[in-house]
Amino acid sequence: MLLVLISVPAIGLLFFQNRQVQTSISNYLTHKFSDEIEAGVSISSVKYSFFKRLYLYDFLIEDQYGDTLIYSEFTRIRIKNFKPGKLDIHFHSISCENVYFNIKVDNERLNNVKFFTDWLKSDLPPEERVVLKIDRIETINSHFSQTAALVKSPPYGVDFSDMDVYNVNVVIEDFVARMDSVYMNIVQTSGIEKSGFNMVDVAFGLTVGQQFMTFSDGEIITPASKASIPIVDFRFNDYMDFQEVFDSVDTYISSSNSFLAFSDLSYFFYQLEHMNGDIYLNGIVHGKFGDLFGEDIEISYMDSSKLDFDMNLRGMPSDDSLHMVFDIKQFRSDLHTLKTLTSYYDYAIFKDSIITEDIGTFNY
Fold first, then answer.
1. Of the candidates 40, 37, 116, 44, the residue with the CA atom closest to the CA atom of residue 75
2. pLDDT (tens digit, 9 = 90+) per residue, 214-263?
3. Quick check: pTM over 0.70?
4. How far apart are CA 118 and CA 286, in angstroms?
5. φ and ψ at 273, to 5 degrees?
6. 18 backbone dihedrals φ, ψ, rounded to 5°
7. Bridge partners of 181?
8. Does the N-terminal or the C-terminal CB of the chain have fewer CB atoms within 10 Å?
9. 285 strand-pairing partners
């Protein structure tokens, strides 16, 4: 009897390790999945071992145009529970090596992931949907790219029309997809964009629902900066609202004593490329991007300069409709600091001794 108990799983393991069996299983699964999402899916081989371990080689999902959407050279999966009939799928871990993730946005602002996310949407009532839990997700030595047809390339910095991030390493813990929401704790993200922007470590909690997306306890670390972002929250009626984010998405962003180098900020605001030094930033920004409010914003530069204000920005600078209102609560600086901040621009006013000779520290 003991021999039978031992031999049955052993024979089963040998069966699943047979190359012809693996090929047949992988072909069946990929063809079925491919038919479901109406896009190309392939796996070069699948291996299964004791202790519920599954190994996938050369896993590929194509987009609706036949281009690569997601590719993973090697994927390791540890299964804890796999009971779809009882609405319970639980993985100990999923580890992916040499992943390539390729996003494309067309002239109608539609990306090549939409067909896949549409397929993921379920018509089942929330209480009948499978609960998916993954204790740990890891990507190693990965690559992310994005091309966007309607985004204008800046003269300097990160180009969102042709973004390329390499050496991407991500660790996610406590992933849970339940009912209509998804939660995960992104404990580590690192990578280098081709412009030179270097993410040493990015971490935050993320909760996503049908009409909201919330990033919590965020921290972004680069070699020169450390941003502390307690909350980034987006509210909307449908994810398609992000195509018209200007007036369709409510935004709330807070910063708590973030230390930001101009050298990092200039990757996203090229106008700051030649500014010197770094700033501390506190405050809240909220509203729609077409009607944005800032409250209790404090910017400190060196030890001698501080700007404290509220603001309202309406319109967009791209079509010359931007209307700006600032309520300055406090402004403190001195001539030496302003010269240091703007030294590259060589403003003539700072060379005019008649104007500047009597200026020392000033407060407002």
1. 44
2. 999 999 999 999 999 999 999 988 767 666 656 788 999 999 999 999 99
3. yes
4. 29
5. -55, -40
6. -70, 130
7. 178
8. N
9. 253, 294
Could you tell me the end-to-end alpha-carbon distance of the chain, in angstroms, rounded to an integer? 90
Please give the structure tokens belonging to residue 350: 């700072």
> What amino acid is encoded at 201 in this protein?
D
What tens digit of pLDDT does each residue of 134-190 get? 999 999 999 999 998 877 888 889 998 899 999 999 999 999 988 778 899 999 999
* Structure-block tokens of residue 313: 């920005």
CA neighbours within 13 Å on the CB side: how many for 173?
4
DSSP state at residue 111:
B
Q: Which residues pair with 199 in a beta bridge?
A: 191
Residue 133 tokens read as 């839990």
Q: How far apart are CA 93 and CA 20, in angstroms?
A: 27
Alpha-carbon separation of residue 72 from 138, 139, 213 (angstroms): 12, 9, 27
Closest CA to 340 of 306, 302, 307: 302
- Token output for 274: 């030649």
In contact, 245 and 219? CB cutoff 8 Å: no
* Separation CA 58–CA 44 (nearest Å): 5
153 CB-near residues (< 8 Å, 6+ apart):
159, 161, 162
Q: What is the chain's length?
A: 364
> Residue 14: in which H helix or E strand, if any?
helix 2-17
Rg (CA), the chain: 26
